[in-house]
Amino acid sequence: MIPYAPWIVWTVPIIIAFIHPLLEKISGKLRDFMAIFAVFISAVSAASMIPDVIKGSVVINGVEYHIPYDWKLEGWLPLPTGSIEVGMLIDPLSVFMANIVGWIGLLIMIYSIEYMHGDESITRYWMLMNLFIGFMQLLVLADNFLIMFFGWEGVGFASYALIGYYYKDEKKYWIGPYSPTHAGMKAFIMTRIGDVGLLVSIVVIYIYSGTTNFLALSSNFGWMGNLARDGLLAITLLLLFLGPVGKSAQFPLHEWLPEAMAGPTTVSALIHAATMVKAGVYLVARVTPILYLGYASLGELIYPSLNTFFITVAWIGGFTAFLAASMGMVSDQIKKVLAYSTVSQLGYMISIIGVAGLLIESEKLFFEGYIAGISHLYSHAVFKALLFLSAGAVGHAIGSYMLRDAGGLKKYLPRTYLVMFIGLAALSGIPPLNGFFSKDGILHLLYAEHMWPLFILLSLTAILTVFYSFRLLGLIFYGERENLEHGHDTHLHDPGPFMMIPLLILAGASVVGGFLLPNLHGFFEFWAVEGLGIHIEKITLQSFLTSTFTSPILLVSLGIIIVGIYPAYSIYIRGALSAEELLEKYSVLRGIWRFLFERWYINAIYYKVFVDGTRFFSEILFKFIECNGAGQKIKSFYSSLAEEFRYIQTGYYRINMIYVLLGLLMIIILALILGV
Amino acid sequence: MLLIFLVFIPLIASVIIYPLGKLLKHRVGYLASIPIIASLSGLLYIGIKNYPKLEIFEVVEWVKTPYINVSLGFLIDGISFPIALIIALVTALACIYSVSYLEHEEGHSAYFSYYLIYTTGMLGAVLSTNLIQFFFFWELMLVPSYMLIAGWGYGDRRRVAYKYFLYTQLGSILVLLSILYLGVTLNTFEIGLLNISNLLLSIPERLILTILFVVGFGVKMAIVPLHGWLPEAHAEAPTPISVILSGVMIEVGLYAIIRIVFPISLPIWIGSVSATILMSLALLSMIYGGIMALTQYDVKRLLAYSSISQMGYMFFGVAAATATGIEGSVFHIFNHGLLKGLLFMVAGVLIHQVGIRDMRKLGGLASRMPLTAGLAMIGAMGIAGLPGISGFISEYLIFLGAFSSASIYKYLLVLLATLATAISAAYMTLFIKRVFFGPLKEEFNDATDPPYSMIIPMLILGITAVVLGIYPALILEYIIPSLGFLMGG
Fold first, then answer.
1. With an 8 Å Cβ cutoff, are B400 and A146 in contact?
2. Residue ranges per domain, chain B?
3. pTM over 0.95
4. Other C-beta atoms within 10 Å of B332: how many?
5. From A240, A329, A582, B311, which residue has the greatest number of CB atoms within 10 Å?
6. Do A76 and B388 touch (CB under 8 A)?
7. What are phi and psi of B108, to 5 degrees?
8. Count of domains observed in chain A
9. Domain of A10?
């Protein structure tokens, strides 16, 4: 490990973020270089922790510590009941996440050089991107809830500012009826509602346990027992889950992500696909082992609450996966399809971790489910970043992200076509790409454990996924290129090296990523044995491949692909059927199309109820209470008081003198009584 | 003698500033800031020297007759130090900020003289050790602020100032009555001796006194439904005075509750029912203020309603009557001074540079005033409770304190209070969006960031807010040691 690596990982990008305005004054080149260099440092430091995690011990200042190691600085937040410290946690999950953020972040930053070239406020872009990466690393490395919440809200802020990056709201950046700044606000407030739950549960857990530290929470379970006895464990866990629901855009707080596409595409790739939206999955993955250990020691006392929690997690995830995939089938905008797809894939991850929690009684199955979630997170980070970046290349070439402006691009952008094809194939789960292996792991567990409802739901979702992936491919690259008279089209070309190299690297990672999953498994093994006390068999590549390709689930996977590809291929790629004609012919299809296109009307309802409702309610209050209420009462009270007293202010000399005498008399009497 | 010196030096200086103002016009503001900066340096000196356990007591004889014996005493401890510090800091910065702001106004002499008297009033009220003296300073901060609003405000300023005066005076009467009753019954006016009220006051007496005090101070704090004066006064006051009114003055009322009401009413305050009632009242302020802020189009009025909402948070922590809650409230007073001060200064920049405060007519200013926009973002995010800016830690402590209170509905109360932060986020992002984002209107093409005398005070506030957001222990270390005594430990 590089000395102080867990600190360098997040401090360097944040510090560099704040000196960008100064660097800009020196030279634009230096600023661009430093922006990328900061992320490079972060990524390298994150990578340097990998060997220590595999080894299971870390040497700091000459002393050897076991993993998970909690590196604390004392006395950051003094409280009457002790203090909360800042600390970094080195364990497989945090190091794994830090590497995802660091390396994918680095590729996206390199891609940004070309993509954002010539933007007038590029300094702000670099600043916010560095800030985001710093906060994201803080989020994943934090050793306690409160510090994690710093990162959590920090990335939320960066996301808000980057969605509204084109703050002048030029029409071309609008997503449907929403301007970029509106979209930013929507994202900020909607995730904030989730954060409310998270914050409350952090408070409650602190009050019951006296700590927010992850390791301390997983070594002493009195708090869980006490919460369960007070009947608060389930509600507290569900409130905690509200945070991930907001951040990872799960139902019912999923509506912010489609509009979040108003930001630059690199932002969508980094924040709204590969990393920030994974924070919710990360948090669920962070909490689940703590609950597992709690169950191992408290057993039946907390089991009902845990069961409620995990059922909710599994089903919210499963339902969101289906919901978003269904919306993705009809979207009219490239990035929006990918956004729905992200929501859907996040649903898979959340769902499978929830399933792992439901299998808490069997240590082996618990771990299998857990790893399945982590594996899918890893695969998805790679192929979704790839997809967004290749969408960026398409948008860069044609100057629009609307599907109606795309089409027939295959011969103009051959390399972009290649990488995007790999990305979409990975998303569809076509072997041997990484998406196949990780999705297979999820379905396999559900199948093996006979969780039929979820299995069917997620398999159905997988079919929809294949459909919208190939629909997207067809609509962008196949068909005839219309409007060729526009001079612009003759200049269509693949992007330059700064954009192409990250794309190729990510495409390569999507191809080989699946074969690295046994290594990922190995990465968590030591921790599982030492930290969770789970005895697991080591997985080699050979055994992994054998079990994958001999399992009956392979047939299901292939079936899904065929059922999904066939209609998409015949409508959008071969052009044998026309989508418009089909819609015209069957009114049922038309109805479904409208329902899906309007996002199940959820968005519209939210706006009607929460936005218009609040506005209406507050205006009524303002009009009838604030303007005619208490203020006026006080005024009339004073004037009536004055009216009464007016009678004693007669203005007659004699009467006034009588008052004076009476007053004197009273003073004398008082003085006599008090005996002065 | 240091404490007496740092309380009275602005008052004494006001006499000198008045004639100088005739000569120097608005630039006398720079001179006027010197005594406040002197007080501020004195406070900082005391703070740094006595870190982290701070308790300094000074006393001189004031009124000595055979019947009444009132001494002039000043106490600085972990509770009063942060509040005095933020008063001195915000008044010093707002004083410098006033200079450019008042360029085109009349009566600089009177303005800065009142300003200095006002400062003494607030510092004195916070550091007082007996009730008579406290009330003296309490009224001393009312009169100049009334004059400042009536003389240099906007719109219907005379009426607004009159309303402000009447409202707060009504509160003051209740406070005075209770103070006199306490003094007669306990035979002392010393705040430090109020603890003995345990022996001398019956429960009904305490209950009535508590109600009178809470209502009396509640008017100053603008707890809903006693807030009627605030939106107008804070919106129509000259902006540097709004900075002080919202940033520090209303918080003195809360400080008074912590200092004066707690010792006499702690036993009944801690009970479940009273905690629930008071916390609900605070919750009402939070949510009501937030919802009202959502409907406002006037920048300053939005900020004024936001102050009502934020005051609700501070009162929430105090109402919970737990050590952590009070720690959070005191720290939130400090942070609110920084953040709301900063935001009102941003509003002042809009008035000064663009001349418009109606958000419907503003828009796109971020490209013309990047520095102001950045600072406004810090202020807005701080109020919205973003970690990394100081407001978050204090809100967190308040919620922590509230959840350990005695109320049986604490889970629900904390949940609703936290939900109110989502409302804060909503009106603050709306404010930023309407003022700074969107297409730039043509008439603002020449708008620029304000002169240094306005931007530097804002920078200091913003940077302090960020530093404390990252390392809150700087202030919290002072508060902790004093909490035990306060809670009767």
1. no
2. 270-489
3. no
4. 28
5. B311
6. no
7. -65, -35
8. 2
9. 1-163
